[in-house]
Specification:
It is built from twelve helices and four strands, in the order αααααααααααββαββ. With about 400 residues, the protein is mainly alpha-helical. β3 and β4 form a beta hairpin.
């Protein structure tokens, strides 16, 4: 918890005055259940998340807010400048559950058509953005605290050395006369104004845990680029009249709004992040005011940025047979490392998604410029990756 949310040690002490660690004990069971859910198959994991995990984290968010409020009152901290450590930790894990829940829905085929898939990818883009923002704020807080702790430690070391040096100078004058001793003391002892305190430059060295967090943060950026690029790719295909409109039969006994609400009903009871409505989706996915050329360029930039992230990941996640003596734990990791958030196999699969969609986007842009895309067909496939599709244009 201290690594992921930059929580100080005083937080745990202030929330548990009787020494029982009540809130941490309350937190342990849902966190254990998140690990247990990974042992289930995809169908059972998704149901377990809806019925057990998300309601548990809903209660944890309220309890975490109480913990942060009590911590601020005990230490006289300002709520506007003091981060909500416990709340940030719970929200961080809540968003992870939500994002995985949507991804599993795509993998299980619950969004088979382009109009359903666009909804899921748009919502997942929002969740990934929220997760990246929370992790970024936590990382800045952790870096600032470590720099402050290091600066205080260096200043204390400087004061100790100056005190020891002053004591050594005074001990050398004991064998001399009082008059000479007094004169030398007056001339040798520095005045407060004669030794100005210089600012201490601090540079915190990254640790292995910092590299793991950076790797996780970078993989989240890759997933967000893919979601955002696919949403805009689908919108560009709709503008080119290459995708069929949703059939009227799907709204014979319901509406598009009801279908949207039912798909994400499990998120509606969570305090944070706020649940998105169908109106939010309609506003966020409306590209009618964007020109076709600009929309294609925007989608291409997303996949190009994703390919750049893939190249960095392949550089730092090395093969298993690589010599361990040449690997620095703060710069690179082997593919079989237990503590990394993404493997080379998945990175290569995501690279295929980026490259394939970029190629067909280039083909679509050329056909649109030449006005030759009316008789073309689009196929949606999940061969490269189970959660991210490739839209083939022929």
């Amino acid at each position: 918890m201290r690594q992921q949310s930059a929580a100080p040690e005083l937080l745990l002490e202030s929330t548990c005055p009787d020494g029982s660690l009540a809130w941490v004990s309350r937190l342990a069971k849902p966190m254990y259940d998140t690990l247990k859910a990974l042992c289930l198959n995809r169908h059972r994991e998704r149901g377990f998340t809806e019925t057990i995990l998300l309601p548990a984290f809903q209660l944890l968010q309220y309890e975490a807010a109480t913990v942060d409020e009590k911590f601020r009152k005990e230490h006289g901290l300002d709520s506007s400048t003091t981060p909500a450590y416990a709340t940030n930790y719970v929200i961080l894990n809540t968003i992870r559950l939500m994002e995985r829940h949507v991804g599993l829905g795509v993998e299980l085929g619950l969004y088979p058509n382009w109009y359903d898939l666009s909804t899921a990818l748009w919502y997942r883009d929002f969740l990934l953005s929220a997760l990246i923002n929370v992790k970024g704020s936590i990382e800045r807080e952790r870096t600032q605290r470590r720099e402050m702790d290091l600066r205080i430690k260096m200043e204390q070391e400087e004061e100790r050395k100056a005190k020891d040096q002053q004591q050594q100078q005074q001990s050398k004058k004991k064998g001399k006369t009082k008059k000479g001793k007094k004169q030398k003391q007056i001339t040798s002892l520095p005045t407060p104004d004669s030794t100005p305190v210089l600012p201490v430059e601090v540079s915190v060295k990254p640790t292995e845990e910092d590299f793991e967090d950076r790797l996780d943060y970078t993989s989240l950026l890759l997933h967000r680029n893919l979601c955002r690029g696919l949403v805009r790719y689908i919108a560009a295909l709709c503008q080119a009249k290459l995708l069929r409109d949703p059939p009227a039969s799907i709204t014979m006994f319901t509406t598009h709004q009801k279908r949207f609400e039912k798909r994400f009903e499990a998120f509606s009871t969570l305090p944070q992040p706020p649940s998105l409505s169908y109106e939010d989706y309609m506003r966020g996915s409306d590209f009618s005011a964007v020109q076709k050329k600009d929309l294609l360029a925007s989608a291409t930039d997303c996949f190009r940025s994703g390919k750049g992230v893939v190249d960095w990941l392949l550089d730092v996640v090395v093969l298993e047979n690589c010599d361990e003596s040449n690997i620095n734990g703060t710069e690179k990791r082997k593919d079989d490392d237990l503590y990394i958030s993404i493997r080379r196999e998945e990175i290569m699969a995501l690279a295929k998604v980026c490259v394939t969609n970029s190629l067909f986007l280039h083909k679509l842009a050329s056909a649109t410029a030449n006005a030759g895309s009316k008789n073309s067909k689009v196929s949606l496939e999940f061969k490269a990756h189970k959660q991210y599709c490739t839209l083939s244009y022929t």
